[in-house]
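Q: Got a minute? One more chain.
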Amino acid sequence: MTRSLSQKQLHLKQTISVLGCGWLGFPLAKALIRVGHLVKGSTTSKDKLEQFKAHHIDGFQIALQNHGNQGDVDGFFKNASIVIVAIPPGMRRNPENNLLQQLKALIPSLKKAQVKHLIFISSTSVYRNTETMMTINEKSALSPETESGKMIASIEEFLSNQSSFTTSILRCSGLFNDSRHPIYSLEGKSNLKHPEGPVNLVHQSDVINIILKLIQSKQYGQAFNLAYPEHPTRIDYYTLKAEEQNLNPPQFLNESISLGKMISSEKVIEVLDYKFQHPI
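A: Always. Here it is, folded:
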């Protein structure tokens, strides 16, 4: 049975295109539909289109490539007032991947569709780790260390300089949910560095709820850091998580110096009046 929409939901209904309906984008698209929006979702896999259809997502097969994007990009953006970019740079598996170049190629289609707002799912990798374990907020300087972080910082700058739409940036700390948690990849590993470094994680559901809150509040054109407000040390946290899951705990080096950073979510808590729901 189709759930009827309230008058408030009907009034707020918009067409939203989610570029990258993967691990984060797919549950996000379903959440947007639940609150009454019309959603278009992109995937590189033809097989996923039927899955999208079953969840009332208007699916498009689109592949972003360095030398010309493939698929009905104009149709994907048509009538969309909001576009959400939920695509990681993918440089670990493909070092030559250039997401900045791929997004630049989308600008004419975004302008043609007269998209009003773009939400870019970014990463706190745009900030540098330090010995002083600095508290990082949205006013902190971007100083990425990895090639992926440098790419993301460049994308942030490029999108923020566009005048045809506003750009909102959500810098996510380590993303996890119940089935995808960093302890599973760290289980039993040895010689891990930075035992006293602070943990910065954010649950998938909190990120989705923050996006819903951003759209509802219309606080566009800003950057927000997303991390659960508690930051235990790496050695304490991952030892505890291993015990809870009956896994072999990771072993850390006995280092005198640990590098790290502490991501503050005060802005998203204050500006969007958001309360984190999922402890790390």
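A: The mean pLDDT is 93.
Q: Perfect, thanks.
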